[in-house]
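Fold this sequence, please.
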Amino acid sequence: MDPGLRERAQMLFHLLLRYTTDMLVWEDTNELSEEVMEDTYFCVLYNDEHHSYDHVIYTLQRAIACDQNQAQIYTALIDKEGRKAVKRGTLRSCQQAKDNIRRNSEHIIQKPLRVEILHSAVMAHQNFALRLGAWFQKIIGYSVGLREVFCQVALEPASDNNKPCLISQLMLHDAKLYKGARKVVHELIFSSLLMDTEYKRQFAMKFTELYKQLQEDFICDDHQRNISVTALSVQIFTVPTLARQLIEEGSVIKVIIDTVMDMMREHLDSNQRFHFQGHNPDKFFRVQVIFHDLRYILISKPSVWTETLREKFLEGLRVFLRFLCCMQGMEEVKRQLGQHVEVEPEWEAGFSLQMQLRHILAMFQDWCSSDERVLLLAFQECHRALMSCTNQPFCSEPTDSYMCKQILHARPYKVSQEPVSIHLPISRLLAGLYVLLSLWVTGVYLYVFQVQLNFTELAEQPLRCVVLAAQVCADMWRRNGLSLISQVYYYQDLKCRDEMFDKDIIMLQIAASKMDPNHFLMLVLQRFELFDIFNGNSSSKDQEVLKQWNRLTEEMLYLIIIIVGERYVPGISHVTNEDVTMREVIHLLCIQAMAHSSLVKSLPENESHETWLETVISKVAVFKKPGVSGHGLYELKKECLKEFNPFFYHYSRPQHSKAEEAQKKRRTQEGSDKALRPPVPPPFCPGFSNIVYLLCCDIFIHILRRIFQKAVEDRSSRWTEPMIQRALHLVGQALLEEKTQLESNSTEEVSICLSCKMFEVVKCLREKSGPVTSFSSFQDKEKAERKRKAEAAKAHRQKIMAQMSTMQKNFIESNKMLYDNVPESLSQSDTAASVERSPLSSMWRVAVGPQQGVCSTDWGAQICILCQEEQEVQAQAPAMVLTACVQRSTVLTQDRGKTLSPKGCYPLFMPPDLAVGTHTGSCGHVMHATCWQKYFEAVQNTTRNRLHADLIIDLENGEFMCPLCKSLCNTVIPLIPVFTLGKVKSNFCFVSLSVREAMVLFDESQADFRSILSFGVQEPKFSRSITEMLGVCATTVHRVGLQTAPNDLCPYVPVMSWNTCAYTIQAIGNLSGLKALVQFSASQRLKSRQAVIQKHFADMLAGVGLVLSIPALYQEEAVDLQPSAVSTAFNHLYLLHLVTMGHMLQILLASHGKHTGDEAQAAAELFSIVLRAGVSGFSVESVKRGVLPFLRCAALFFNCLTGVPPPEELSGTAESPESQLPLLCSYLSLPSNLFQLFQDHRDVVTTLIKRWCGDAAISKALKGEMQIIRYPRKRNRLIDLPEDYSVLLNQASHFKCPNSSDDERKHPTLCLLCGVMLCAQSPCCQQQLNGEEVGACTVHATICGAGVGMFLSCICLCFARRGNPLHLCPERYRKLLHMWQQHCILEEIARSLELLNVMFPFEWQML
């Protein structure tokens, strides 16, 4: 850069940056220039994270008298920019507004909102300073030289030595800046100081110098870390070379830990240990965030060590050990006796701190392992810190204990009587360092000789923790409350176990390898408080005490199994990290086949959030692709099953039971024995090889002898089956170890000879107990028990058969009349099978007309799912109801996005595009109406008290969950008995409406109806409860379908019932409840006034409603009648003919092409009639394809209405559409040549067709001026998604919110119904819907899906976990499609929310 330009730029940047800094760090004490004469002020409201949106809006409305819209705008700007001037005026008026805001926002548990009064000149200068920040970013982007000049000016020391440099001033004042100013400063630092290596180093040194003050300010601040200057640490500390320099030159490890220690010093007790009772959770959380910076510093261990680096690292380690000393033994607990603990002690804070330190402890060990000298010095420092801890392990002098001629010299201690702590970070760190030292063979022996370690003392504290967990499992600490149970759970849980439970086991293995095996086991017996029991010096008759002793014995044996068998730790045996992960995966898959996500969640992570699953999964498992539902699962390879250990130490109790059951089940299926043998473990490293001597020492043999002796004495209170299993497992481990040594060494070199000792034990037990007699007596007892059970089962079967016989006789007796009236052709000699095979059986499979068959089955007896009582469905009986869900639907729409529910529309006429319909679905579960009413009232009473009730069901709209399957419901459908018509003989005399007579009814000139009373019969009467349930269901359908208030007197109530029946049949995905829905719709005419039904009949020409309303013609005001069976049969037939011809005309007008084939003549005559309407041609096949869906729906409708079963060929799925047409025509009593209908009714139909084709709307449609719906209608599907999720992310990255002009990150969301991209979870796209502010997705779902929507979030997470790329699962997407087509989305959402049991509501309407 030119020197002159550099000089001018330096001067200009210095002046402008100084000006920007002065304005942004402006204090109230600063004085304005005398040139500022204007006396105008602003009342400025600042953002905080304590007050909610609604609270701020309410406060502004009350304080400054603005309307709600203006308050919402102010609040949105305050949240986005950090502050907003809400009042402009004199100092007095602004002060009054400030007082009002603080007074209205103040609460007992909340501070008032932050409000300041600023002079108008200060506001103007600060706004200009922010613009200068943006200008700086633009200017320094032009040239590297300009950026260097700016960095020099920003880091240049101030002329006043008492002040830091300009960038330091901005950082120190960061917590006082508002959000908008912070963003500008942070972006300026990013674009300048962090872009150059040297200036980044200098800035990092400044940042480290100010680190403590910056963190103190952050802790006192209420804003999130992502808008704090402390968040820049991730940009600095994660650079390995820069982290090394900061350790060497800035002692950054010491700085970070000292900062944490100063922040937490207030929590130290008199013993200099942490005690978090009554701590501030928010402040404590912010302090823990500082540990992230320590993780960043240690994330990459050095490959080359310098002396300075060693010195500074060890200095930081010593400071870290002082911090751990405050945790060692903190929050001790003492067993509560007699009375339950009154106040649960605080424990979450301690474990939260442990979780934060989990990876840091592992990183420190990883750094130490990279240099032998550092490792030796670190071990020495850690051991010194452990010995200097203030909590002394004992309070008494050592004593001698005797067992099997062995003497243990140790201090007495009982976990059940003295204080014990679960927090031992220094002991566990020392265990980890010791294992690392064992890898450096010469170093280990050199150090062990220099320092005489007392392994008994080292093992003491970890052993206490293990015993504490065992005693908690034995219910000895139940009076200490849930806090201790939770601590023990997390002690062994995935989140903490690698630096707690696992390290305790390692320390016990270290002690077992260095101590005499007899002494070690005697120490274990003492701490488990079982020493006297196995020594024969203690006895008790208290069953509770005996139960505790048995459980402690089980846990003690389990501990020995772990110490001897768990060797998958690098350094303890010759294994790698890959072997460790592989073993974890094997044991997880031994429980059950698992999905990839479940495996990842069940595996421990390292500091980089990696589990190494991908490196081993292909070696141990095979992937099974998912079916229609569920996840793809990994199944364990058969050759890996031999690695299964039933006592794997990372199993929880439920996992242990599941794994054992699964493996026994697998072995049974394979025909092998169920014995779960211990697997062959890898050999110990030389430093730990002495552990195996535990399996052959005198104390071990004594323990086994006592356990087996208790078992053969047949004293059930002294032993348990798990105890024997563990003892036998230990025997198996010892024999495996002996076998391994025999195979690898000579007989003289074998260190374990358990087989001889165990033979002596078994021989002695046989001689003392006489096991043959015991076994024979046991077999006799078992045979007697089996015989008793068999006799009881036989008696139970005989009782049931007698009851069934009695019921059959009662049924025949009560229905004797029916059996007497059976025709001779259907006598007892003729079976049901012969009837089906007879020629007449095909005639009976007709649902319409005079040849209508007989109803096969009625409802029969139904069992209420609530009271379990059985009842027949009868007209005069109490009502039985089906649970149902009524919802608006656009699944069948042919015009997505069309405005729904236009005002003034006659709801009966469903337009051809089916833009929206009313669907009624049911899960098929039956209840008494009275039982349902009681259940619904109980749901209302209990749900109102649940915090998340508004997420699951809407009580105001009558929603509830099915008591049995938890499906979402909002009404019930009464079960109406099917009124069969019987067999209609052809020679009966009948009078019915012919097509010509029906046409008279459609004539608009006919204003009145004439009764055809002479052809009617008395209609059935329903019980009061059935009539009431008819009204309940009809009102719900009317309310939901028309989105209106309930109104029983509305004339649209019956037509909406017919409407939902027709729509549900067309969208049928589940036959459950369809029969009940059709019968309910048919009964609606009995609930409404005859004039209303007759008016609807005259107005419409649609199949379902026409059929269900025609009985109203037989009614008069004084007499309630219905058509006879004969009249009904012919009415159904002629109406079906009429509607079929009308639909065929629809298809004809919408089709194009030429007609050929056998039906050409009949089709040509029809075509000649409609030719003048403008149709150019049509195809016979296209008409047949178009009419097929209508015939299927008609067959379903008449099957549910009349109860006549369809032909068996229609019930299967093998029939092709071409072969279904004649079967449907036969079932519906239609000619196989449908065009023949137009010839049979030529005189009447010709006039009708001419009238239809002459309509103006038809002419417009044929000219292309209106949309034409072609048949068959297309079946809607979800949009096609790319297989790779990254493709979708690329598409979403180009999305720009249409209502926002800034560059702030949005939440692009894709509608799966229509493919529109929306801006979700953002106030910029919120709209008013029914007087409520809702999000863009909610608005779109109302338009696109009638209130039901499916959206896919297209957000790319910046801190997403590394792993396999995301791909679309076609099977799962297909399941989602089926769920949508079957109208199960609402049901699935309700079930998911019920299972999640969300305690804090989420505002879904704001999506």
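The chain has a mean pLDDT of 80. Residues 771-814 form the longest helix (44 residues).
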